Amino acid sequence: MINRRAIAERREEQETRAVYRLADALYAPYSCPATAECCQLTRTRRQPWLWPSEWRVLREGVLKTHGVVPLSRPDGACPLLDATGKHCTVYANRPFGCRTFFCHRIRGPSQQPVIAMNGLLERLERINQREDDELPAEPLQLLEWFAREQT
Q1: pTM exceeds 0.85
Q2: Of 31, 41, 84, 126, whose CB count within 10 A is highest?
Q3: What is the distance, to the nearest Å, from the Cα of residue 36 to the centroid of all Cα atoms in its chain?
Q4: How far apart (Å, rounded) are the C-alpha atoms in residues 93 and 117?
């Protein structure tokens, strides 16, 4: 029997990865100082918001790398940072918000591609609109996805 849900989810994940590639291309002219400042979630009081398809892409990368979804860190940083707190352990699978958020030290063209990025955000929303999905049809903060996984 064909598992339509699994097929739909796989297609959504492929489309999400396509959005990620487009976002990466739009931000290719920029450089990040790689301080992991943006990953200090408690300190910055900012978390990326992930759509369900983004969580599935991220979770897949997490399970390949870690074998399990890691618990929260005592320092309040992203659970996906390495032991040094400076490098993402699932960088290739990082969500849209992590690909497009930059601190004040970003280097590159003076104007960021806001209109194109908004179009990609709208595309992510369309990818995630399904009536039969048991996951929320709305984005949740990163640590909320991790908390759901632990219960």
Answers
A1: yes
A2: 41
A3: 15
A4: 18
Q: What span, in angstroms and rounded, lies between the C-alpha atoms of 149 and 122?
A: 26
Neighbours of 69 (CB within 10 A): 16
User: Model confidence over 64-106: pLDDT tens digits?
Assistant: 999 999 888 888 899 999 988 889 999 999 999 999 876 777 7
Residues in the chain: 151
